[in-house]
Amino acid sequence: MADAALRDRLNTLVTSMFATGMLDENFHQLKSMEEDGTAAPGYVADIINLFISNTKRILNDIAALLNQPVVDFDMVDVLVRQLKGCSYSVGAKKVNHSCMQFRRFYEARSKERCLMALNLAWNEFSDVRSKFETMMQLEEQIAAYGPKW
Length: 149
Prior knowledge:
Blueprint: H1 2-19, H2 25-35, H3 43-66, H4 73-90, H5 93-107, H6 111-144
Helix pairs in contact: 1-6, 3-4, 3-6, 4-5, 5-6
Main location: cytoplasm
GO molecular function: histidine phosphotransfer kinase activity; protein histidine kinase binding
Protein name: Histidine-containing phosphotransfer protein
């Protein structure tokens, strides 16, 4: 019974993440690899954890660049491309879209607008990270009940 309730909560969470545009098809593909056995159990959690740690590092690196008196916009470009790749790998659609905002602003060499885009990226990342962490906690609780027969 508790197992079914946890599965319902997990399904509702993932459904809402798709419905709000937080996730895209890349997440579904990632998840299906684990479900069909082409990826090892825990693969999705590992990829999500990499996404979280890499994204935090990249966002902090971008912030450090933007806080310099003279901004290296070429390096901002490199980091935003890395951020886009990280978010694409897990299907974090809103984080990925925030990278497009960044691109317009660093191409225009606008430090102020890049800081606004950084704030948006942090907010989108924080939202998806929170949901991913909840998702992984639910999956751990479900796994504690043993395999689904």
